Amino acid sequence: FITTYITIQQSREINDRISTVNTPSVKILQELKFSILETRIFLETWLKEQKPHPDKENLISYREEEYPQVRKEIEKVAVKWPAHLQDSLNQLFESIDLLFTQQSLDVIDNFQSFDDYEDPTFVFMAGTSLEEGGDIYYRMGEVMTRLNNLIQEQKENANAANEEMYSSFEGLRSLVVGLGIALIVISVIVAFITSKHIVDPIK
Prior knowledge:
- The structure is a single chain.
- It contains five helices and no strands.
- It has helices at 2-48, 54-78, 83-108, 120-130, 135-202.
- It is rod-shaped.
- The mean pLDDT is 86.
């Protein structure tokens, strides 16, 4: 009974870890990945559209309002992460800050008026930065690499926890089967001894 209780408690703790840490972590990191990738689309629109555009508003709104909130949510769940993953998360946040800074330097700040779009130097520099080998492209790749690594490790942690829980239940099942067989054998032996004690005096 003690073994059963311990196994159930361990399984409950593992399940709690999966449902409150691993699964939410993967979900929110994947959402962050999608949103960061979307900023590239917004940025390309910023470079092409001289007039006000929803993508421009979405880019500013995400960077100034949505991302800070998402960051707080990730930090909240990351409190339960291992130390090395928390370090990786801090490095990710630093990379995102650098990406946003580069976006501002190369595109957002340089294209604030209609005249800015007529400056061939600004247009060339911004286009180059967005293309492969450019500064924004490089920063985006760095963020995606860090994000993908974090997501993959969280998935692996969730799988390992599931396997651990399954192993615990398998061990409990084997124990129960073994105890059942032992009880049957003991019952047969006790029955045999009891019947022998009853029959012998009669003889």
